[in-house]
């Protein structure tokens, strides 16, 4: 319980998105960009080249930098887009990424992780601007989501505890903020 209390104290100074915009003398976000940095456990939102706000994140259970299968619990690295938004998700809200995209599929085909039919299925979904098929061997259903029922505990841990399937988790309050400014097609870059 002492750790949670300590975490609560650490999180008291978090600034709202509205206040962060005011601090930058902006009334809205133009050319929204999202950059997720796995090494610093941060998700940053930008208006053009201006950093607006940074959120504490956690990732997949497996710290590897290469995602090779649906069950490896690795957060992929690359450039993606939000392909679907679910506002009634078990983790509060879910901003699905178009992982695997055609670039991921081409690399996986080259390495023998998937076959030509799977590659074409993923490639076709990208050309149609749809989310990738859920049945791919590389996995799918990767995105940015809240914490859900355990938000009070997990958002206030004063240490990093990676627990997702490979998705990016932020607090429920933060996913509410983020979902208020994103739309399908919003670009998300995940780095290490």
Would you write up a description of this structure?
The chain contains six helices and eight strands; from the N terminus they run ααβββββααβαβαβ. With 192 residues, the chain is α+β, with helices and mostly antiparallel strands. The protein has an eight-stranded mixed sheet. β6 (143-145), α5 (151-154) and β7 (168-169) form a beta-alpha-beta unit. α3 (102-111) runs antiparallel to α4. The chain has a single domain (2-99, 142-191), classed as L,D-transpeptidase catalytic domain-like, CATH 2.40.440. It has helices at 2-11, 17-23, 102-111, 116-127, 151-154, 172-179; strands at residues 32-37, 42-47, 50-56, 78-89, 92-97, 143-145, 168-169, 187-191.
CATH superfamily: L,D-transpeptidase catalytic domain-like
User: Number of helical segments?
Assistant: 6
Q: Write out the strand line-up for the largest beta sheet, numbering strands in chain order.
A: 3-2-1-8-4-5-6-7
CATH C-level: Mainly Beta
CATH architecture: Beta Barrel
Total tally of structural domains: 1
The secondary structure category is alpha+beta
Concise structural overview:
The protein is of the alpha+beta class. 27% of the residues lie in helices and 24% in strands. The protein has one domain (2-99, 142-191): L,D-transpeptidase catalytic domain-like.
Give the arrangement of secondary structure elements.
Blueprint: H1 2-11, H2 17-23, E1 32-37, E2 42-47, E3 50-56, E4 78-89, E5 92-97, H3 102-111, H4 116-127, E6 143-145, H5 151-154, E7 168-169, H6 172-179, E8 187-191
Parallel strand pairs: 1-8, 6-7
Antiparallel strand pairs: 1-2, 2-3, 4-5, 4-8, 5-6
């Amino acid at each position: 319980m002492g750790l949670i209390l300590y975490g609560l104290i650490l999180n008291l100074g978090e600034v709202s998105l509205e206040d962060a915009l005011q601090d930058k003398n902006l009334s809205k976000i133009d050319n929204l960009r999202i950059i997720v940095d796995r090494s610093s456990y941060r998700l940053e939102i930008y208006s053009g080249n201006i950093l607006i706000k940074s959120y504490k994140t956690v990732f997949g259970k497996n710290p590897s930098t290469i995602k090779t299968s649906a069950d490896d619990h690795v957060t992929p690295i690359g450039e993606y887009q939000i392909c679907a938004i679910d506002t009634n998700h078990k983790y509060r809200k879910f901003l699905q990424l178009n992982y695997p995209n055609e670039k991921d599929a081409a690399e996986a085909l080259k390495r023998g992780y998937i076959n030509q039919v799977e590659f074409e299925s993923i490639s076709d979904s990208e050309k149609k601007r749809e989310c990738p098929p859920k049945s791919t061997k590389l996995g799918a259903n990767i995105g940015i989501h809240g914490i859900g029922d355990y938000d009070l505990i997990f958002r206030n841990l004063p240490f990093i505890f990676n627990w997702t399937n490979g998705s990016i988790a932020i607090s429920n309050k933060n996913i509410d903020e983020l979902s208020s400014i994103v739309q399908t097609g919003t670009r998300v870059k995940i780095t290490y």
